[in-house]
TrEMBL record:
The entry's keywords: Calcium, Cell adhesion, Cell membrane, Glycoprotein, Membrane, Repeat, Signal, Transmembrane, Transmembrane helix
GO cellular component: plasma membrane
SMART domains: CA
Cell location: Cell membrane
Name this protein carries in UniProt: PCDGM protein
GO biological process: one example: homophilic cell adhesion via plasma membrane adhesion molecules
Topology relative to the membrane: Single-pass type I membrane protein
Biological source species: Corythaixoides concolor (Grey go-away-bird)
Function: Potential calcium-dependent cell-adhesion protein. May be involved in the establishment and maintenance of specific neuronal connections in the brain.
Pfam families to which the protein is assigned, alphabetical: Cadherin (PF00028), Cadherin_2 (PF08266)
Amino acid sequence: QLRYSVPEDREPGSSVGDLAKDLGVESRSLAARNLRLVSEGGQRHFQVDLAAGILLLDSRLDREALCGQSHTCSLHLQLVMENPLQLHRVEVEVLDVNDNAPQFPKPEVVLEITEVANPGTRLPLEVAEDPDMGSNSISTYELSPSEHFALSINVRGDGVKMPEIVLEKALDREKVAVHHLTLTALDGGNPVKSGTAKVTIHILDANDNPPVCDPPISKARLEENVPVGTLVTKLNVTDLDEGANGEVEYSFKISNNAPGKFTKLFSLDPRTGEIRTKAPLDYEESSAYEIAVRARDKGSPAMEGHCHLRVELIDINDNSPEIVLTSFSSPVQEDATPGTVIALIGVKDSDSGDNGRVHLQIAKELPFKLVSSFKEHFSLVTNGPLDREKASGYNITVRAVDSGFPQRATQKTFYLRIADVNDNAPNFSSPFDTAHIQENSLPGTSVFSVSASDPDEGSNAKLSYSILDSGMQDVPISTYFRIDQDNGTIYTVRALDYEQDKVFQVPVEVKDAGSPALSSTAVVHVFVLDENDNAPTIVYPSVPKGSAFHQTIPVLAEPGYLVTKIVAVDADSGHNAWLSYQLQETAEALPFQVERRSGEIRVTQALRESEDPHRVVVEVRDNGTPSLSASVLIVISLEENGVQDFAKSLDLPESSPKDPNLTLYLIISLVSISLVSCVMFAVVAARCL
């Protein structure tokens, strides 16, 4: 759907929009495709320059004549192109310009007010008219300066501003019998335009209190098509006077900007103030009515009050949807790609809201679906493969149902013929799959089953599966996995080692037995799950198995003194590689403790010179199930020398480590961490794909 906008004062022949560019076609092809412009409503406001592909203005537009007081003004066009048939909707919004000045229904307004009127008494004024909309419409009113009167502006239910003259100071007819004022209406355009009316107020030397409406502005709601004679409302008017001065008569107030159309639909009892319907009401004709009522007493001179009633109609579902078949293409090839347009369908419903919201339906078992092109227009498109050998044609019933209560529905049936072609390839249910298998599983363990389907029949639907050695791994993938060519189940060829390979990409091909054979591929990401099959390895101190590590510390070492630090690694990952350190229990309490996570051995109490060397067994245990462990024996001897420096006390090399195994284990640890990070990124990428 294309959308353009054009100001209402644009000259005929002006460019509205570049159709060829926005439709994505070459302008020289428009004439060959027999481009036609159809205006809704039959009025021609636009034309198309087929040579340039430009939408032009055919006549000068008058927004006020086209759309009246509507907040938005849009003209709807349809572009029809052939070879292939396409339908495009064009919406042109007519923008308002400030080309109208406000104007009052009468150039002079004559009002009357009694001299005993209390300050605060209101005199309603005629509303000015401005055909322009939005900010160009009536913005405000101004009243010439007056000692006795001021201007008040009320806003009624439909947003219209209603000026009123308010008495601010008591009147004295003997001093001034007539007041002359000027009322000015200003719009919100740029530059501002205005209109004026002369207001003449005669001061009457008569009775006391005017009739008062409570409230002065009210609202009533009733359903359309209610029986004639239905009570809409009863006006609540009071007059504090007595006798004839307090007797009120009611009548409709009709002015140029409030035409009396409502008088044909509503009746007003002059004595009781009851307003009833006197003709059927149709929401589709008008959704609301503004009714002005004059309440006048029988005093001399008579005083009057003014009531304003807004009657809003509630739409009922009294119109059935209408189906319009704009275009229909038959026959259609059976190899038509999904989304091929079969028909263009429009719907109409004169109701509003849910009552006018229409849903199109077709039978779910048909290989077609309805796609909303734009508002109230749908395309019937193919939604799956067509097979002429199974069905040479379809009776398609389109059913339009609105959302009202009770629902109304309409249906239309047409026959579509299928033209024969030959194609269909097998397809996997998913191009990417994920599987998990525990390391050390026995060869022949089932890993995953891929599934593919082929809508063909016979040998063309007989499928066989195979694994492709595509060079994605250094070693052929077939040395790790095999697949059952009939059912697509993938099995292991040998036991897998998580520490060696953490993830495999297994490309699988499915091929039918047709001639020529058609095929497709999918990739199964097989993630190897870690098993706690590696015990921790103590890399420092490095001692032969069955030997002890000897460490000397000063006899004067205080509590907290760092004796040494145990460093261990675990080839597993995750929880299986979380290590903790602890001392094996002995018969006597040791003056040492080991930090559970860091492996640091520290002095916990003061040492004695006479103590024999302490034999401390440190056990390193992982967090796997079952848990695996390693231990080292450390013999701690006391010496009488002064406090040693940290490197000497630990018996650590001060430069590079002498034990090449320590370097190797550190490298293994870094590589393991890098591999785990890579695997995590690969998993995230596979999930996203």
